[in-house]
Design goal:
four-stranded antiparallel beta sheet; globular; single chain; 401 residues; alpha+beta; 23 strands
Length: 401
């Protein structure tokens, strides 16, 4: 009985297995909605990926950034070389400092004013002439002037001052003594003669003035004369010593110098702001340059006393001669202060130099110098300025301090 039961169970088991197999074979077409997808996949079908693996995207390669082109270093600009001009001490290029000096005789009669050329002159001389009327001599060196005039005649003592630089000496005629000197020593021995009678194309008459106060020239024509007479440019030894302007806070306030010729009184008023001497003459309290309109205002004023006397040249014009070589009294005004000293000139071609009371050569301020030459015994009035105000100690500190 037991055997029959075991056999029966075996048959049932085998049959059940066949039934399950058939059901599984038919279920591939009609799967139940509750069938687990993972079981279906695991039943022998190849696995299906729900999401395709991402495709690697290659970004375009950016071109390499070019290296910046180096900026070339700027070519260094050489600092211009400057040297002191021999007659003023002003710093100028070497070629300018080497220009040959040119002296021009200038009228000072009333109808000749305002004269042209003062602004560009390095040194201006003024001295007596016949009839009590003074005359100027303008010396140009570092500056080439525009209009210059009115040009007048020569006198011997002016040749002596121009000879200190062997200057080109421009004039319109002259005294017999002066003309003889120029004929004998006007080829560079003393000066280079530039007489209007010979170099007429370099001088002209203007219509705004009447003769003889209307003869003019200019710097370009004067330089051409210098070239024609072979007055070569070249280095020159300065005759005077120059120093810088005094500091503004140390300059005196005001001050005045007065000198007079029979027909012209000259006044210099010291201006501490510009450190110059504002010049006035009879009929023009504020003297100006007729060419530029600029105020005549030198940096230095020198007054020389010198013996003048009749030339006795047989003329009725009463021309003068002067003891131009020698020594005498001088007043030297610079940086607002005037001192009394002496002038000295050893020979016609030696420079006129200025010394203080102790015999030490005076230092002038860089810039233009006016030299007033007066007859011995002439009155010279010097009015000192006020001392500079004491410094304000508060000016050293800011409000925040």
């Amino acid at each position: 009985m037991k055997r029959v039961l075991v056999a029966l169970l075996a048959v049932v088991a085998v049959g059940g297995g066949l039934l399950v197999g058939m059901l599984m074979a038919g279920g591939g077409a009609k799967a139940s909605s509750t069938t687990d997808p993972s079981q279906v996949a695991g039943a022998g079908s190849p696995p299906v990926l729900a999401t395709a693996p991402p495709t690697a995207t290659t970004s375009p390669t950016a071109p390499p950034t070019p290296a910046p082109t180096p900026t070339p270093a700027p070519t260094p600009v050489p600092t211009p070389v400057l040297v002191p001009a021999p007659l003023t001490g002003v710093l100028v290029p070497p070629a300018v400092a080497a220009r040959h000096p040119i002296a021009v005789m200038i009228d000072d009669l009333g109808p000749a004013r305002p004269q042209s050329g003062f602004s560009a002159a390095s040194v201006v001389w003024q001295a007596p002439a016949e009839g009590g009327i003074p005359r100027y001599m303008l010396i140009f060196q570092e500056n080439i002037p525009g209009e210059v005039g009115p040009v007048r005649s020569s006198r011997y003592y002016y040749i002596a001052w121009a000879a200190e630089w062997r200057a080109v000496y421009a004039h319109a005629g002259g005294s017999p003594q002066a003309l003889q000197t120029l004929r004998q020593k006007g080829n560079g021995q003393l000066v280079y003669n530039a007489d209007e009678f010979r170099w007429g194309n370099s001088f002209w008459r203007v219509k705004k003035r009447f003769p003889p106060h209307n003869l003019y020239t200019d710097g370009d024509h004067l330089r051409k004369i210098a070239k024609s007479v072979k007055a070569k440019d070249g280095p020159m030894e300065p005759a005077w010593t120059f120093g810088p302007d005094l500091a503004e806070m140390a300059r005196p306030r005001g001050g005045r110098i007065q000198v007079a010729y029979p027909y012209n009184q000259i006044t210099y008023r010291y201006d501490w702001k510009s450190n110059s001497y504002l010049r006035g003459v009879t009929g023009a309290a504020k003297q100006t340059d007729g060419a530029t309109g600029a105020r005549v205002a030198p940096k230095n004023v020198v007054i020389m006393l010198m013996k003048f006397g009749p030339l006795n040249d047989g003329s009725h014009k009463h021309r003068l001669e002067a003891d131009v070589v020698g020594t005498g009294t001088a007043w030297i005004a610079t940086n607002g202060t005037t001192i009394k000293g002496t002038w000295r000139k050893k020979s016609l071609t030696d420079p006129t130099q200025f010394f203080d009371a102790n015999g030490k050569q005076v230092t002038l301020t860089v810039g233009q110098t006016f030299v007033q030459v007066l007859q011995t015994g002439s009155k010279v009035t010097i009015t000192p300025g006020d001392p500079p105000p004491p410094p304000d100690p508060r000016s050293r500190y800011s409000a925040a301090d």
